[in-house]
Amino acid sequence: MKSLFERGPTLLTRLVLALSCALTLMFLDHRLNAMQPVRSFMSTLIAPVQYLAVLPEQVMDRIVYLATTRTMLRNENKLLKQELEELQMAVQRLNFLENENDRLRQLLGSDVREASRRMAAEVVAVATDPFSHQLVINKGLANGVYEGQPVLDNRGVVGQVMSVGRGTARVLLIADQSHAISLRAERNDIRVLAKGTGDLQQLELQFIPHSTDLEVGDKLVSSGLGGIYPEGYPVAEIISIDRNERLQYARVLARPYAQLDRVRTLLLLWPADATEQPVYDTEEETAGNDNVD
């Protein structure tokens, strides 16, 4: 008759057997990759458990994200409404000043300035030549675009159209080394010539005498000379003046207002005296009928 309390292997024996089995499985898995099917099966088996374990955290993160996004959208919407109201007030003031300016010009016998026509365009390509700064836009001859046409963005002058195809046009940026533009200082109406340096963040003013009344921070706008750019559009701000007497002229650098390195949407202008006419798409016709100075 067997004892009810028969003793099994000792604890040391059990430990040795467990270690032997573990080392054998590790060797087989390392050399023969024998445990890969087992790992795959176990991963598949416990995957739902893992998803359930992280589900509360994911749900909480999503709720926090939606709440934060909703709050941000509310705040942004409120700010945009305030900005829209301010812009509407500014437009009303601008219309009053335009009418007053026209009346004064009529009293003085000067020609009343006519409004320019405009059309929005999108950048579809950027020239890869490191020595030339050009863009390709999605408007061309079919839209009334012509060579030499001024191009702006929401900050200031970008450049001019240098070549036109049927549905696209190539724009030469004001930072290109081959480009020059006539400007005037808004503070005192001093006329200067700004030339591209090849740096998208920098223009250089040419032939500036040391005694010229220019200061860092002066705003430079288009002068209207040359027949390319209409008068009064912002172009650049003076950022440095070097009046070294050993140089024949002062070295004056300016930073363009337009973001030439990241521009996506542009504005094509047809000055009042342009012989070409804009041809709007159906969806642009209403917007194209609005004018800007």
From TrEMBL:
Domain of life (superkingdom): Bacteria
Signal peptide positions (record): none
Alphabetical keyword list: Cell shape, Coiled coil
UniProt-listed InterPro entries: Cell/Rod_1, Cell/Rod_MreC_2, MreC, MreC_beta-barrel_core
Annotated coiled-coil segments of the chain: 70-114
Name of the protein in question: Cell shape-determining protein MreC
GO cellular component, one term: plasma membrane
Any one Pfam family match given in the protein's UniProt record, by short name: MreC
Family to which this protein belongs: Belongs to the MreC family.
Domain Rod shape-determining protein MreC beta-barrel core: 123-270
Known function: Involved in formation and maintenance of cell shape.
Biological process, per Gene Ontology: regulation of cell shape
